[in-house]
Amino acid sequence: MIYLDHNATTPLCTEAREAMLPWLTDLTGNPSSIHEPGRRARAAVDDARDRIASLLGARPHEIVFTSGGTESCNLGIIGLARRHRTAKKCHLVTAATEHHAVLNTMRVLADREGFLLTEVPVDRRGLIDPNEFALALRDDTLLVSVMVANNETGVIQPISELASLCQMRGILFHTDAVQSFGKIHCHPHEIGVDAFSTTAHKYYGPQGAGFLWIRSGVSIDPILHGGFHENERRPGTENVAAIAGMAVAAELAVGEVLLGEESRRQAGMRERLWDGIASVHPTAVRNAAGAPVLANTLNVSFPDCDGETLLMALDLEGISASSGSACMVGSINLSHVLVAMGVIESKAHAAIRFSLGSNTLEAEIETTIQALQRVLARQATMENGVRA
């Protein structure tokens, strides 16, 4: 199997697995218990918090452990919006291409809690125009949430510039760094945000673990209610094994970013994949062309093809990729990201995302190109037969 869906999830790295194993086998203990096993578990959680904070140039108390990216985004957005809402501050701003963990959370706050919401458009490359973004900010704007890098297209937004515009007006800024952390350099202090969400399984850590960074001095309301864990911001017994694995995976991922070699390697393979696609299907369209994108991500529309059919055919060839559209309850929904970029319906339906990883080999890219050539040829033959 050739796995080209790393933006969906990554395989657990050996080092993270080894850090988790003791907590899944011999070791036990609730980090809130005062006996020796509990103290040992607490020490493991505290050590992971210290290590992650060090990676971010942050303070340990700024790190809140969560169950993953969706909870981190929900806690950051809802927690900030509810805590800092006033009679004069109830306006929210986000981008039309955000992940649903942000977009739907913002919409729920608007629909059910009376917040006002503006969804800023993007251009055909998927980028936010800072000037247009500035026009969306108002005197009553309370909170903005814009992702660092898009999960479907890999487009990297000018977060520092957008956050600076908010800082000048005293507006809180949350960013979804789920796809960017461990892939590009984006420390929260340096990009100027107030809250920063991630999840471990996007950078070779375990599923079911993530963290939210909250700037010192910025308070949030909890969205869950129970005990007094995580400095009273997120109740619930900590997942010691997953947290230990996440810290190790984060250190390795950030180290790779600093070296830059893996990013350059993946970018080279991505370009080879695009060249191969353009060769076997000359009418293919590279979505987000001209925008800065993650080194591992390539989103392509195959005109006159159905994306879901193409994905299934690739799966039969032993290649795992993903579609720009989602299949829910038997109906195909167009990618809201591509629609927001102005991609026409037929091309949005024909979009496929290839996302490479640290275990992707150059030979696998060549095999994928050859498989695409076979699959596209079969589809063309079938379509010609139907027309005849």
CATH class category label of the largest domain: Alpha Beta
Number of strands: 15
Beginning-to-end CA distance, first to last residue: 36 Å
For the largest beta sheet, what order do the strands appear in spatially? 2-8-7-6-5-3-4
The figure for the number of domains is 2
On the 0-100 scale, what is the average pLDDT? 95
The DSSP helix count reads 14
The assigned CATH architecture of the largest domain is: 3-Layer(aba) Sandwich
Proportion in helices: 40-55%
Provide structural commentary:
Helix content is 44%, strand content 15%. The two termini are 36 Å apart. It is built from 14 helices and 15 strands. The protein has helices at 14-24, 36-56, 69-84, 100-113, 130-136, 159-167, 188-191, 229-232, 240-259, 261-280, 307-316, 336-340, 345-349, 362-387, and strands at residues 2-3, 63-66, 91-95, 116-120, 141-145, 172-176, 195-199, 210-214, 285-286, 297-301, 319-320, 322-323, 326-328, 331-333, 351-355. Helix 10 runs parallel beside helix 14. The chain is globular. It has 2 domains: 14-257, Aspartate Aminotransferase, domain 2; 260-387, Aspartate Aminotransferase, domain 1. The protein is α/β, with parallel strands linked by helices. It has a 7-stranded mixed sheet with strand order 2-8-7-6-5-3-4, sandwiched between helices. Strands 9-10-15-12 form a 4-stranded antiparallel sheet.
List the helices and strands and how they pair.
Elements: E1 2-3, H1 14-24, H2 36-56, E2 63-66, H3 69-84, E3 91-95, H4 100-113, E4 116-120, H5 130-136, E5 141-145, H6 159-167, E6 172-176, H7 188-191, E7 195-199, E8 210-214, H8 229-232, H9 240-259, H10 261-280, E9 285-286, E10 297-301, H11 307-316, E11 319-320, E12 322-323, E13 326-328, E14 331-333, H12 336-340, H13 345-349, E15 351-355, H14 362-387
Parallel strand pairs: 1-11, 3-4, 3-5, 5-6, 6-7
Antiparallel strand pairs: 2-8, 7-8, 9-10, 10-15, 12-15, 13-14
